[in-house]
Amino acid sequence: MIQILTTGGTIDKVYFDANSKFEIGESLLPELLRESNIHDGYIIRELMRKDSLELTDDDRATILEAVRTSDCSRILITHGTDTMAQTAQVLKPLADRTIVLTGAMQPARMRRTDAIFNVGFAWAAAQLLPSGVYIAMNGEVFEAGAVRKNLEAQKFERIAAD
């Protein structure tokens, strides 16, 4: 069984106009899982609906506690990409389980989204990786503490571990 925690982020953004006014809507994760033909083996829990730039230390403590108290040894977390690496770093002390964070560069509601691929890839990563904390984005897996988002390139990249 995989525990899936949703926190919001671009994957769940809903845009209202051309000026990029948005809110974090209801998670499309159940729909993304169905489209990926994943119908069971998971428990979804919504923790919050926030853009990752709005996440606070208290929010990260909430995520940490949700992972810590989960009965599952494999956890998948949907998260905004801007501060995903920070949250992964906060989760590093829970290295006795496999924790995989993923998200999207484009909202799941958009036609050209990477959300479906990233969720499927993270699902596989959560099942196959050994214990540890990881980010799974766009076909690559990164260890917590050795990754950053390159805003200019709009992708994640490895850095020297801290």
From TrEMBL:
Keywords: Hydrolase, Membrane, Transmembrane, Transmembrane helix
InterPro entries per the UniProt record, alphabetical: Asp/glu_Ase-like_sf, Asparaginase/glutaminase-like, L-asparaginase_N, L-asparaginase_N_sf
Gene3D superfamilies: L-asparaginase, N-terminal domain
Origin: domain of life: Bacteria
Membrane-spanning ranges: 115-137
Active site: T10 (o-isoaspartyl threonine intermediate)
Record-level Gene Ontology MF annotations: asparaginase activity
Pfam family of the protein (one): Asparaginase
EC number(s) from the headed UniProt entry: 3.5.1.1
Positions of substrate binding: S52, T81, D82
Span of domain L-asparaginase N-terminal: 2-150
Record's keyword annotation contains Transmembrane: yes
Name of the molecule in the record: L-asparaginase
Organism annotation: Marinobacter excellens LAMA 842
